[in-house]
Each structure stands twice: as structure tokens, then as C-alpha cells.
Amino acid sequence: MARSRFLPDNFTLALVTTVALASLLPASGNVAHFFERLTSVAIGLLFFLHGAKLSREAIVAGVGHWRLHLLVLASTFVMFPLLGWALKPVLSPLVTPALYTGVLYLCVLPATVQSAIAFTSMARGNVPAAICSASVSTLLGVFVTPLLVNLVVTPGVSAASSFDAIGSILLQLMAPFVAGHLMRPLIGGWVKRHAAMLTLVDRGSILLVVYTAFSAAVIEGLWKQVPLGSLFGLVLVCAVILALALGFTTLVARKLGFSKADEITIVFCGSKKSLASGIPMAHVLFASSAVGAIVLPVMLFHQMQLMVCAVLAQRYARRPLETLPGDAPDAPSAAVQSPPAKVTAR
């Protein structure tokens, strides 16, 4: 029997298991150093393979839709940080200061790539524009996220300075990505044929970061500092931010007269945050002992956005193909349909 869309996927269950393992058997001493080195290698390999996978042709197909891309980027890097900052007096009492630091970090992350594109395809949206917006958001996040961390994250958090952080991310994440993309003519076909390997590296690197981060945090007394009530409060905080982001992107897209296909792209690219980028960046930007609490909101928001967007995508997909009264016709690019993609943790 098929699993309900409201139940966690296998990767989310793996994340929960990894957190439990780190809580019961945290790595310390030489073992922790080994896992940290292994994690750095895995993350470098991950971004190398993603660089080799990136298709220039698919990106060029959506580049011309600049109004849509500007709105998505504004939602990702302006609206979200403003939400986290403006709602702090209201929402921060529901969680611990460390967890709300994680909420603020969540708000400055780039958008997802794979799941945003998959949901856009499922909902019959503008797929080429989604590919372009999501990819550009990820690339800009390398530079923008460290700057926003120092502008938005609560003062006193042990984040590196903006320029040092950008340099670290360029070296550890961007350099392998560029190297992989330059080698695309040689290895791109092989990477495409072995997509399962990329998924394994993708998920494996995230699980390694989660294990090392939570190990360090548990040793520092994470679970003694995070009461059960704060975890329930974090669920409410993430739900409020996600609901406001979805409402904002939908309303603005309609007010600005975008077609339904473009609205779908704006909603799914502008309201989502990347677990795959967020956890490796946290590993670079913050002290090891702080990463565990900081990535908790990212992990929770990730699962929440997958479940909610799955429902929205199915609702959009059920709309008639013909133009409805008062509704703009779907963009021609929406006809470029990909097969319904399996949504993964990105």
C-alpha cells in the first residue's frame, strides 16, 4: 500500500534516526575529528557532482523571465529575513534563543532546487523558469547567505565574519561545484546515468553533517538546554513562517498579473528553503557546538514544506487545462512537462 503523503519520507526517517544515534552515541575526540574530515570530503564531492549535473541549456531556457526571477529572489533573500526579524518579538518566546537563531538562519538560506522543480512539474507550472530560479538562488546563496547571517542572526552567535565565511564557502563548496561544471563535457553523461549515486552522496553528506553537528551539540548539553515545550513551539514557529511565505508569494504573483503557470513557479521556488545547502553552510559558518540547535529548524521546516507543497501541487494539478474566466492562460513553457518527479530532500 502506498505511503500517505502526510507521513515522513525515508530520508526524513533517516535524519531522525541519525539525530537519535548522535544523542545516544555522540562522536568525540579522534572519532569526531575523523567524521569532520570525512564530512568535508563528502560535501566537496557532493558539490562537484552537482556542478557536473547542471545543464546550461535548461538554465538558458528560463533566463529571459526576469520579472519572475526577481520576485523569487526577493522572496528568498528579502521577504524571509524580514519575516524572521519582524516576528522575533512574537515568536521567540515560544523557543529557546539558540533555536530562534536557527529560525533566523533558516530565513537567510537559498531556495531548494530539486524539490521546487519537482513540485512545479507536478502542478503543471513553468518548469524551465523554475530550473533557472532555483539554480540561481543556490548559486547566489553562496555569497548572500553569509552576509545575511551577520546582518540578521542574533549578535553574539559564533558565526565567522562575512568575508571569511564567503571565502570558506567558495573554497569548500563553490570551487568543487565550478570544477565539476567545467568537467561536465567529460563526465556529465556518466553522472546523469548514475543519478542514484548522486542521491547517495547528497543524502550521505547531509547525514554525516547532522551526525557530527548533533554529536558536538549533545556533548555541549543540547538536550538539557532545549525543553520539550520549545520543540512544540518550534513547530508552530515554522508553520507560521511557511504559511506567511506561501500567502505572500501567491498574493504578489496574482497582484502582478503573472500567469497561473508562473504563479506556481513563484510559489514553489519562493517559499522553500534548502536543507541540502543549509546544513553544509551551517557546518562552515558556525562553531560545531552551535550547529545542532541551528539546523533543527531547518530540518523541521524541510519536512513541513514537503508535506504542504505536496498538497498544493496536487490542487494546482487538478485545475482544468482550459482558461478559466478571470485567469491568465498558462504560459507556453508550462507545456514542457517533465514526468512527475519523486520529491527528494533538497
Outline:
globular
**Beginning-to-end CA distance, first to last residue:** 25 Å
CATH T-level topology: Na+/H+ antiporter like fold
Q: Architecture, CATH level 2?
A: Up-down Bundle
Structural class: mainly alpha
CATH class: Mainly Alpha
How big a fraction of the residues is strand?
A: under 5%
The level of helicity is: over 70%
How many helices does DSSP assign?
16
Number of strands: 0
Mean pLDDT: 79
Please provide the ordered H/E string of secondary-structure elements: HHHHHHHHHHHHHHHH
Major sheet characteristics: none
Q: Which radius of gyration do the C-alpha atoms yield?
A: 20 Å
How many domain modules? 1
Region (Disordered): 324-346
Protein name: Sodium/bile acid cotransporter 7
Transmembrane segments: 37-54, 66-87, 99-119, 131-153, 165-183, 195-219, 231-253, 281-301
Keywords: Membrane, Transmembrane, Transmembrane helix
Q: How is this structure best described in words?
A:
The protein is mainly α and 346 residues long. The chain has one domain: Na+/H+ antiporter like fold (Up-down Bundle). The protein is 75% helix and 0% strand. The chain contains 16 helices and no strands. The longest helix is centred in the last third of the chain and has 30 residues, at 288-317. It is globular, with a radius of gyration of 20 Å. The two termini are 25 Å apart. The relative contact order is 0.20. The model is unreliable at 322-342 (pLDDT under 50). Residues 324-346 are annotated as: Disordered. The chain crosses the membrane at residues 37-54, 66-87, 99-119, 131-153, 165-183, 195-219, 231-253, 281-301.
